[in-house]
Amino acid sequence: MTQNTSVLLAKRPVGNPKPSDFSLRRENLPTLSEGQALLKNHFISLDAGFRNWLDESAGDDVLPAMALGEPVMGLVMGEVIETRHAGYQVGDWLMARIAWQEYSVADDSQFIVKIDPDEPYPMNYYLGVLGDTGLSAYFGMLDIGKPKTGETVLVSAAAGAVGSIAGQIAQIHGARAVGIVGSDEKAERVVAELGYAGAVNHRGDVSAQLAALCPNGVDVYFDNVGGPILEVVLDHLAVGARIALCGAVATYGNPGSGPGNLFQLVTKEALMRGFFAHTQVDRYPEARSQLAQWIDTDKLNAPEYMLSGIESVGPAFSDLFAGRNFGKTIVKLG
Fold it and tell me: For position 197, which CATH number holds?
């Protein structure tokens, strides 16, 4: 009987996750019930936002708090190898919000999107630039940010999965992109590889660096981190600024008070709005088509931080918070 390996939540992370917070379990695959399909997972997506549901007090309309000793939930890309589900046939490729496992049992209780295997792009792209990563950058930047020619667009976690795409979309629309990153090396890379006009190292004096790089203020802020950096950025807004709240990495596992200067939104007549890509599934084809066109015309670079093997999943997730990734983090299985 085929054995399956799952990544379990061994301990509740204290602050940023560590590899020791996760463990592996091998067990036999279950027999499928009616309405289920068996996926052989080829790729696992590592997304910092899932840290939000690792705490015992977590749980919301999206996911419940993850249980200790049970497989961690995330996004996977898998191929149907057995099915008792009328909607899925053997050979179908599915992107699913399901457990970090080598094999997964899928049913109608999960968020699932079918991917055409004849698409001309690598399947891992559908967890990255053509998946939640690119879709989040697309919806947040264009629906909320609405960058215009000559404006200054600031992106936090600019070397990360979503940030690396969001800054390029701003540039495609004629804006000047400035990134916030965690090291001088990443600052150099986002300029050289992603076309950013400059970058702020958040380990230095963020306010002084913003004043130098954004002398006329920030017209659009694409925020992936929240916390203290958001508070600093609010003091550098231009009149009529738009802020897209995509994530809050700085607060996952480190809850604290929010920005104390929200009145800046009033004085700058600014808009701040959160969003969630999963609520816009009907627009996925539109967004994917545009992102693919930008890839094909070399307007969009899709950097990836790729690791291999199910045993790499916990360390790869921890790497996100240690700042070791550049671009989208994916683990290839098999």
Answer: 3.40.50.720
Q: How far is CA 71 from the centre of its chain?
A: 20
Angle between helical axes of 284-296 and 132-139 (0-180°, round to 10):
100
Can you give the pLDDT at residue 223?
A: 98
pLDDT digits (tens, 9 = 90+) for 250-263: 877 676 667 999 99
User: Can you give the pLDDT at residue 138?
Assistant: 98
Percent of the chain with pLDDT over 90: 85
Residues 123 and 137 placed together within one structural domain of the fold: no
Q: Is residue 298 part of a domain?
A: no
CA distances from 251 to 15, 130, 187, 255, 310 (A): 9, 27, 23, 5, 27
Instruction: State how far the Cα of 269 lies from the Cα of 112, in Å rounded to an integer.
Output: 39
Domain count for the chain: 2
Type and span of the H or E element at 219: strand 218-223
Question: pLDDT value at position 214?
Answer: 98
Give the type of residue at 185: E
Whether residue 292 is contained in a domain is answered as no
pTM over the 0.85 mark: yes
Q: Which residue has the tokens 């996750």?
A: 17
How far apart CA 63 and CA 42 sit, in angstroms, is 23
Exposure class string for 144-157: b at 16+ Cβ within 10 A, else e: bbebeeebbbbbbb
Q: Determine the residue type at 222.
A: F
The pLDDT of residue 279 is above 70: yes
Domain boundaries, position 229: 132-278
Task: For residue 291, tell me if it sits in a domain.
Answer: no
CATH number of 27's domain: 3.90.180.10
